[in-house]
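User: I'm curious whether this sequence folds into something compact or stays loose and floppy. Could you predict its structure so I can see for myself?
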Amino acid sequence: MIRELAIVGVGLLGGSVAKAARAGRLARRLVGIGRDAGRLRPALEDGTLDAITTDLAEGVRAADFVLLAAPVLAIEGLLEPVFGAAPAGTVVTDVGSTKRNIVRAAERLGAGRPLAFVGSHPLAGSEQSGYRVARVDLFRGATVVVTPTEATELAALKRTTEFWEALGARVTSLDPETHDRTVAAISHLPHLVACALVDGACRVEPAALELAARGFRDTTRIAAGDPDMWTEIFLANRDALSASVEAFREALADLQRVIVAGAPDEVRAALARIKATREGLR
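Assistant: Here's the prediction. I'll summarize afterward.
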């Protein structure tokens, strides 16, 4: 059991971790850390957290497990003060949806020593944000990717893996570079495309959205995500995202080509191939 779990950022992800950790009795004490005490207070008042603070050093001083549930660029900036204030042996992980820069920053701070930091990315969430939409079951059945390197302490990796599994997640492992290429294709590109679909429909016909039915709404739901968060994600993973965009351009151009050519057999074959691939998703 974790003696004291410190969660930096008690929004959708951090709040859901706190709720699940409380329900599963995974930690004797839960501490929430953030910049705005008013945003932390609901989690204290409903009994999810035992304490809240806006002082980062105070919040992690007694922790033996720290979760950084902040935006990706903020996580990089949090590493140094957390490493400086947390006790020796404290395991630190995060929820960032990009990993290379965060892991590299952690390794620089570790200066070649075995590192009790393990990059994590839970593939769970919503276009909504904030503690008010946090859920105790958010990670149940979800995939969490951990991104250890040669510098990662095996004991820290084991504790982090067991932590996510205790929340109900399926844990898999990728190196940071492979992780970022993968999520660029399956997460960041779809979000970018959803935004472009909304913008493109408005450009074709400004009044089109008034007629938008379930298909369009479902396809573009994620375009309603937090612009600040997604700006950070897009920029932090811009090289991998750019490569995914180019692959998407080619796929779209191939479909456009057979449609413009008026070749029903080619159109049908392309759609059947794509349909079979989509149906193969578990």
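Summary: Residues 95 and 121 are 5 Å apart (CA to CA). The beta strands are 2-8, 27-33, 51-53, 65-68, 91-94, 117-118, 120-123, 143-146, 170-173.
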